[in-house]
Protein: Putative nonribosomal peptide synthetase
Organism: Streptomyces netropsis
Amino acid sequence: MAERVRKIWAEVLEVTPESIDIHHGDFFELGGYSLLALQAIGRLLAEYGVGEIESVELEGALLNRLFDNPTAIGQAECLVAAGYGAGDA
């Protein structure tokens, strides 16, 4: 799961996935800002097939989590807690 988050972040931030440490890489220190965060979250939700109604609440949860814990692992944990991607490696 965190690897998928890292891949999407790399695309949005225009960096290599290897440059993002899933445990310590800070989305905002890597050059991210709120609009890019929403773009990344939208891609994550689309990748996991989150429906339109569910995505409204989950988008807010993911954004809040990103401000509290701006790491790829933090985003992955939030998705898993919401019931998405638990079987991902």
Remarks:
- The CA atoms of residues 7 and 13 lie 10 Å apart.
- The chain has one domain: 1-80.
- Residues 1-80 form a domain with the Non-ribosomal Peptide Synthetase Peptidyl Carrier Protein; Chain A fold (CATH 1.10.1200.10).
- The chain is about 60% helix and 0% strand.
